[in-house]
Amino acid sequence: MARYVERNALRANLVQRAEQWRWGSLSRWLRASAEDQVLLSAWPLPRKASWVDHVNRPQTEAELTAVRRSVERGSPFGSDAWSKRTIRRLGLESTPRPPGRPKKPKNGSSHLFLLTFSSSPFPLPDPGSAESVNVV
């Protein structure tokens, strides 16, 4: 996820390398001045030595799709095993599912009913005729 965020300016063709975007966290991290460091939150894990090169390598369409799906659903982003553990640990079981109410299975039954009255002051059409009334 951090790679995706730190590549934003590069992906938008605003710079040739991600660290050139002076307002980005990658640029601030590389400058390492006390003023810049105050603005950055600590990462839960250290960056790998080749982090800048990793950020500047293009992301595949599959990687972009996975990140965007995670963001849209508010679900953890990572390997399947890590995501499953994190979902269970944080009680996020609904996040991997598509949004909205689950669709009801179609069983082929009709929900149309023919209304008939046993005693009516009005003559009723024959139930098989085109004048019959179907009510949902």
Task: Describe the 3D structure.
There is one protein chain. The chain has helices spanning 2-6, 8-11, 25-31, 34-39, 51-56, 61-73, 80-90, and strands spanning 113-114, 134-135. Residues 110-118 have low confidence and may be disordered. It is mostly helical and 136 residues long. The protein is elongated. The protein is 38% helix and 3% strand. It has a two-stranded antiparallel ribbon with strand order 1-2.
Which helices and strands appear, and what pairs or packs with what?
Layout: H1 2-6, H2 8-11, H3 25-31, H4 34-39, H5 51-56, H6 61-73, H7 80-90, E1 113-114, E2 134-135
Antiparallel strand pairs: 1-2
Overall mean pLDDT: 77
How is the main sheet built?
2 strands, antiparallel
Give, in spatial order, the strands making up the sheet with the most strands: 1-2
Q: How much of the sequence is in beta strands?
A: under 5%
How are helices and strands ordered from N to C? HHHHHHHEE
Tally of DSSP β-strands: 2
Instruction: Specify the helix fraction band.
Output: 25-40%
Q: Rg from C-alpha positions?
A: 29 Å
Low-confidence stretches: 110-118
Individual helix count: 7
Structural class determined from secondary elements: mainly alpha
Concise account of the structure shown:
It is built from 7 helices and 2 strands.
